[in-house]
């Protein structure tokens, strides 16, 4: 079967986006792994599949697969590209789009300046929601990794994140410790690992080792998780700019029970077709 796709990115976190509204498309794990290969396929961090909604109040359904073929609950940079994709392809004329995901409903708002603001839902710090094997508590959790112990905050923004505050961002630490924590036995569903350097109360530097991918240029849910962790610990104010390797995201969170609002760019790179 010949598959038509659009290559997009949000701050360098790259996607293949497929319209499964106009024509039904299903992917299995080996197909996704093959397509994601940067040498022999198209190459992407995540595959985004745009489907019709299953509920009349919703506009679309959004399925997300990591490059290793695993289906996940949420993808922040992908959500912004999703909004640009459905508008550019004429699948909707709305500027406020309600979308069903594996984690629940998200709302995408396309601004006049072209940026997309996403209501990412309410975060949870409950270990069981990731899941993370620990009794709930308010402070940091100690996580033993090889011969070291890391002070870590578990955050679910629909998908699971482990946030670690560091003084300096080190390539070696992101790659080695990120890979070890991703598959740590205390995270039975694996986890995305964020390394956050707090610059001041309104700015962080962040690198994310993503579950099912490895380090990416940017991670939207990772930025949300890091900022809400920082706000909860009193390190950050309610509006923060996260500097990621591929660019900046604006994250706002008013505290417990409030939704996280993430604002940033979404770019189309090219369209193509490939045999599935
Ligand atoms: N890049 C994404 C997150 C994609 C899913 C993640 N790797 C997971 O397994 O949960 C983002 O921008 O949020």
UniProtKB/TrEMBL annotation:
Site (Could be important to modulate the pK values of the two catalytic cysteine residues) location in chain: 161, 210
Listed GO MF terms: diaminopimelate epimerase activity
Pathway: Amino-acid biosynthesis; L-lysine biosynthesis via DAP pathway; DL-2,6-diaminopimelate from LL-2,6-diaminopimelate: step 1/1
Annotated Gene Ontology cellular component terms: cytosol
Pfam families per record: DAP_epimerase
Broad class of the protein's primary localization: cytoplasm
PROSITE patterns: DAP_EPIMERASE
Subunit structure: Homodimer.
Name of the protein in question: Diaminopimelate epimerase
Protein source organism: Marinomonas hwangdonensis
